[in-house]
From TrEMBL:
Keywords: Iron, Iron-sulfur, Metal-binding. Residues 471-500, 521-550 form the 4Fe-4S ferredoxin-type domain. One of its GO terms (molecular function) is oxidoreductase activity. It comes from the Bacteria. InterPro entries: 4Fe4S_Fe-S-bd, 4Fe4S_Fe_S_CS, DPD_II, FAD/NAD-bd_sf, FAD/NAD-binding_dom, Helical_ferredxn. Pfam families: Fer4 (PF00037), Fer4_20 (PF14691), Pyr_redox_2 (PF07992). This is NADPH-Fe(3+) oxidoreductase subunit beta. PANTHER family: GLUTAMATE SYNTHASE [NADPH] SMALL CHAIN (PTHR42783), GLUTAMATE SYNTHASE [NADPH] SMALL CHAIN-RELATED (PTHR42783:SF3). The lineage of its organism: Bacteria, Pseudomonadati, Planctomycetota, Candidatus Brocadiia, Candidatus Brocadiales.
């Protein structure tokens, strides 16, 4: 194992087995596109240190207030607490919000200017992240934003009842506080303008996002009362939409579709239906978003595709003709002949995804030039906020590598010895803490936030549920006397008598559990089942069980 001492109690490792340990044993962080130290900030909340929890989030995923509300939560399905027989996953996203609600403070980084300047086109999550990371490296950063406020779709594509504007403003301010300049109402129309920017800056990053809705050639789509989902949301968010709604059908299965249904509810619609061509479980939203939507009385119909938008002689929408779909084992869908049916509607909203500006093809030649980069949804297509953040960071590193002549970035694992995790067995029996919400009687107040946030008490209680998977319990076989004291006190079946032990080249520990004393080669701890309570450490008479804390860091390679 390649290690070095950085502190008396910390080793820094670049060993691939230590790196793999993190991916295997901290599944929530491994599932996060930016590898946020989730157990680290949750433990800080458990200890009441909200500023530390905020700082971890702020340095790793940049937008804690925003992501604490609208992240699609890839970490939560991966959480060990949600595995079979262990209950509900920890509410990681809600805890991120608590860190921002109670611990937000300026970054106060010590920045040494390096004399180089970068221009970023687009102030959405990818552009903001790239700006943040480059500013911390000493670059002068200017962002050009086409709208009158920064944030991109965070501000104009997501409704305030999910993400209030002041939350976006606060997260953006933490970036401009680093010296980043944002110029609004500046739209870059063509590659000629990009060429001009390349002469004025050391590098240009295009992070324009996917602001254009995907269109369809469906008959009747131009009828009065038919809208594109993103256009509908942007107009509603900018208070530019004043239309009577009665019976609304939203076609789509993503976040924008769900937001359109809920916005329609707040605009007075009496009947709202979300129509999706696949099954509900295939929708590009989490179960939480669907639960909140359905609690507001919005219906869902699955396995249907629109055939025609129906209208009257004046060209006004009157309904939608659908056809039922079947879905096979390969997850391919097909219309069922003769299954057409009609649903009445006065408004139809197509929320079937977004795409980048149609001038993307014009930028392909420019991409090959050494100081021009493309980031986020503009390059990858419509994605989630946290995925856009991850790509903004990736591109910022590419820019820094080229302009600063460093070799690249390397991942290091900081391993520190600890005596106790502070976790107790009783924490396993704490039920999930549900988010407080605005009463239904107030849900039609258009911009009132529905989820009101955890109290400090609730956040600490929920944080206690975390297994703190960044702690690694290990038994020193050379000191173990096989007294079984650890097995006697283990609250779950996590310590095994093992034989036929093998460590594979890629770091997997394979063994066969045995109850036969004559076959025992070692006593081992199963990290998948360990609840980090420390009973075994306290019971061991020869002090052969150690606890190590693992933390992933990224450093420059000079």
């Amino acid at each position: 194992m390649e290690t070095e001492n950085r502190k008396d109690d910390t080793h820094v490792s670049t060993d691939k087995l230590d790196r793999k340990w993190i991916d295997v044993n901290i599944p929530c962080s491994a599932a996060c596109p930016v590898m946020t130290d989730i157990p680290g900030y949750i433990q800080a909340i458990k200890e009441g240190d909200y500023e530390k929890a905020y700082h971890i989030n702020r340095m790793e995923n940049i937008l804690p207030g925003v992501l604490g509300r609208v992240c699609d939560r890839p970490c939560e399905p991966a959480c060990r607490h949600g595995w079979d027989g262990l209950g509900d996953p920890v509410s990681i996203c809600f805890l991120k919000r608590a860190a921002a609600d109670f611990g937000m403070k300026p970054v106060c980084a010590e920045i040494k200017p390096n004399g180089k300047n970068v221009c970023i086109i687009g102030a959405g999550p990818a552009g903001l992240t790239a700006a943040n990371d480059l500013a911390l490296k000493g670059y002068g950063v200017t962002i050009l934003e086409q709208f009158d406020q920064p944030g991109g779709m965070l501000r104009y594509g997501i409704p305030q009842f999910r993400l209030p504007h002041d939350v976006v403003t606060e997260d953006v301010k933490s970036i401009t506080d680093l010296g980043v300049t944002i110029k609004t109402n500046v739209r870059i129309e063509n590659t000629g303008r990009i060429e001009e920017l390349r002469k004025d800056y050391d590098a240009v990053i295009l992070a324009g996002g996917c602001a254009n809705p995907k269109h369809t050639t469906l008959p009747g789509v131009d009828s009065k009362g038919a809208y594109w989902g993103l256009d509908f949301m942007i107009a509603a968010n900018r208070e530019e939409l004043d239309i009577p709604l009665e019976n609304v059908i939203v076609i789509g299965g993503g976040f924008t579709a769900v937001d359109c249904t809920r916005m329609s509810y707040r605009m007075g619609a009496k009947k709202i239906t979300l129509a999706y061509r696949r099954m509900k479980k295939d929708m590009y939203v989490g179960a939480h978003e669907l639960e909140v939507m359905e609690s507001e009385g919005i219906d869902t119909i699955s396995l249907v595709s629109a055939v025609t938008i129906l209208s009257n002689d004046e060209g006004v929408v009157t309904g939608v003709e659908f056809i039922h779909n079947s879905i096979n084992e390969e997850r391919k869908i097909a219309p069922i002949s003769g299954s057409e049916f009609v649903m009445e509607a006065d408004t139809v909203i197509f929320a079937v995804g977004q795409e980048a500006d149609d001038k993307v093809a014009e930028t392909e030649n420019a991409v090959r030039k050494s100081v021009f980069y493309v980031a986020g949804d503009f390059r990858n297509g419509s994605s989630t906020v946290i995925e856009a953040v991850a790509d903004g960071r990736k591109v910022a590193r590419e820019v820094h590598m080229q302009l600063s002549n460093i070799k690249g970035f390397k991942e290091t694992i900081h391993i520190s010895e600890v005596k106790d995790t502070g976790r107790k067995r009783d924490y396993d029996f704490i039920p999930i803490q549900h988010m407080d919400t605005t009463p239904m009687r107030n849900r039609q107040i258009k911009n009132m936030e529905v989820e009101t946030g955890y109290s400090k008490e609730k956040s600490v209680t929920e944080a206690k549920r975390c297994y703190l998977c960044h702690y690694n319990y290990q038994i020193d076989i050379s000191r173990c006397i096989y007294c079984l004291a650890c097995i006697d006190v283990m609250p779950v079946d996590c310590i095994k008598m093992a034989k036929d032990i093998e460590v594979t080249e890629d770091g997997n520990l394979n063994y066969v559990e045995t109850k036969n004393w004559s076959e025992v080669e070692a006593i081992t701890i199963d990290n998948d089942k360990c609840i980090r309570c420390g009973n075994c450490v306290r019971a061991c008479p020869v002090d052969c069980i150690s606890i190590s804390k693992y933390k992933l860091e990224t450093e420059e390679e000079k």
